[in-house]
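Notebook p. 47: complex prediction with succinic acid.
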Amino acid sequence: MTYKILQVQPISGCIGAEIYGVDLRQLDNKLLWEELKQAYLQYHVIAVRGQDLSPDDQTQAAEFFGQSCPYPFAKGMDEAHPYMTRIIKEPTERTNFGADWHSDTPYLQEPPSTTTLYAVETPPAGGDTLYANTEAAYQALSDTMKKMLEGLQGVFSASLKHKPGGNRKIHHARINTMAVQNSGEADRLESIHPIVRTHPLTGKKALYVSALHTLRFEGSTEKESRPLIQMLNDHCIEPQFTCRVRWQPGQFNIWDNRCTMHNAINDYHGHRREMRRLTVGSQKPQ
Ligand code: SIN
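Predicted complex, structure tokens below:
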């Protein structure tokens, strides 16, 4: 793929690219947005460097990828941006938001296809985000395993029942400065989706499963399901399927939840990190 406008710097051999030389406030530059979508589909996560985006700018940029969606567990940042959430970890806090490998909100009937994250303030070092390419992970499975997974449905839950250190209520009680809400509702929020999903734009198959959110396979008990869920999770995050994205203020990441997982590394105690997050493009996984 060649790009006329974007300067594209792949981050690893499998997933992720840094993008330079663009200003995402140029909403009417058609070629820019076509190329950005191409890069997003090619690399699954793009880190657009050197932006200066207000919440309105971020919303307009994000909505090139779909309609804004609500996030059930954090209040919107203000009346004008009810679906945008502020992800903050203060120097005094120990727990962060988004740790543990996951694709965003798979417990919804129609999870967001795309997440956008804008860096307002970043620690001097650390606070990177890891990404995994679940299409490449699916491709690398044996034909026998691919056949076993055909037609298998997962039960996805918001409960965080298997999160190391406690369920969603316990976890939310520790993220003091984020405007969390609805923790008590989490156990009831469940959806059923295919464990192998097909990307509607590329036709490629990807694993859609995580130890964090997939409770069990439909029709099976947790005891029966968990070992295979854990194996698939661990397979997706093998180093050859991943990349590590470093942040700097003004960086805007856009990623495709249909073929990736991510994990926010919590290695910057004593420093502040503030991001603005907006998910878009609700879509039933097929
Ligand atoms: C998320 O899981 O959406 C947050 C990722 C991050 O803060 O790096």
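Notes: Residues 7-282 form a domain with the Double-stranded beta-helix fold (CATH 3.60.130.10). The chain has one domain: 7-282.
Next step: compare against the earlier run before touching the bench.
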